[in-house]
């Protein structure tokens, strides 16, 4: 009988061992890697039992040396009879949750890499966790590298990822809630938060959105992201993602909620605000003065990445009077051999740049970066020599691309591509008036975005004076005595106030 024709959802475990074996074989009828192994409990021919598991998904050594040895030997100290499920709980050290009667749940356990034991005359199945699936070792994330700081990153194993966080936050307030998503994939998903810091309303809203997800398959957290984000149409990320455990720890301590999914090293956090996408992990591993300077550079880089081509084309096309005469003459000479408008020239150069960038990403890692860098240099020089682009335009596009790479978040970097072209066409067709109008609409759009009810542009809009300091600079750690209220909606103390400068001054006065 074909698997899809056999409805097993409502089938319960039978007291007859042969019936249970028959049902398993019907449900998993085309599973060549399904292993069935028969034993006799306590070497008694009257007490037959059968193991079911998927080959190469369980630890055979532990199964042979521990589980089977315990089962085939009679335990004289057990207060229970062999025909009682409590006997197996006693000798195997399992819990009530490992004893199942639903065939649907049993099948899920087998497919998840667990060992299931059926025993004659017992209408329950025993689940034994001997899962041993090969997984990648803990390594440094390729995208989020740092000069200083931890070198560990998440893996594709959700259990390992949760342990990495548990190791760093040893608190009973660290809560984990689990879900299973995907009708076919049955993917393990978990949310994590600190109950004494998080806004519980956001937790409830997140759980409600996750419970509404109904898909056949779920392999990556991006699937969850697209289902739960407030505005799926917006190009700007409203959910933060990272592969670094230290980043997740910082987010949890800031009142965020982390979302894990088995099979992907990318972990999501909600809610998210605009400024956190421009903050680098390394900001907290270097001097606060240097980190503040870098933060300003990123803000400037973000503005340049979306506005510079449009601003240059607008000025050179409609507002030549603002350019110094000597510079204007140089620009005109440089463009004299270019057969098309500045707008088309800029559009062409930006498109070629995106092609080179995408090719560099798709190439093997060892040569991809070199190909994209050398390719851009060669194409730029060849375009100038052939009269297809001016020197000034090559400089503008190169500056734009460098500015875009100052953005730490790949999601935010991707979000700048479309606005860059929009502002280019506005500046090239309507001049500075069109560019300014576009910037106003752009800012209004950003202000209107919400992430789980939290304003995306807070503390800028709405303006929160007490939180504004963290936006414009990375304050010294000793000066931050309270947690931000942007996410949690409440102020809470992190520690007692301490000012080393004030302390040093007082010590001098005592002397």
TrEMBL record:
<feature type="transmembrane region" description="Helical">
    <location>
        <begin position="299"/>
        <end position="318"/>
    </location>
</feature>
<dbReference type="Pfam" id="PF03323">
    <property type="entry name" value="GerA"/>
</dbReference>
<keyword id="KW-0472">Membrane</keyword>
<dbReference type="GO" id="GO:0009847">
    <property type="term" value="P:spore germination"/>
</dbReference>
<dbReference type="InterPro" id="IPR050768">
    <property type="entry name" value="UPF0353/GerABKA_families"/>
</dbReference>
<dbReference type="InterPro" id="IPR004995">
    <property type="entry name" value="Spore_Ger"/>
</dbReference>
<dbReference type="GO" id="GO:0016020">
    <property type="term" value="C:membrane"/>
</dbReference>
<keyword id="KW-1133">Transmembrane helix</keyword>
<protein>
    <submittedName>
        <fullName>Spore germination protein, GerA family</fullName>
    </submittedName>
</protein>
<feature type="transmembrane region" description="Helical">
    <location>
        <begin position="377"/>
        <end position="405"/>
    </location>
</feature>
<comment type="similarity">
    <text>Belongs to the GerABKA family.</text>
</comment>
<keyword id="KW-0812">Transmembrane</keyword>
<feature type="compositionally biased region" description="Basic and acidic residues">
    <location>
        <begin position="501"/>
        <end position="511"/>
    </location>
</feature>
<feature type="transmembrane region" description="Helical">
    <location>
        <begin position="417"/>
        <end position="444"/>
    </location>
</feature>
<feature type="region of interest" description="Disordered">
    <location>
        <begin position="488"/>
        <end position="511"/>
    </location>
</feature>
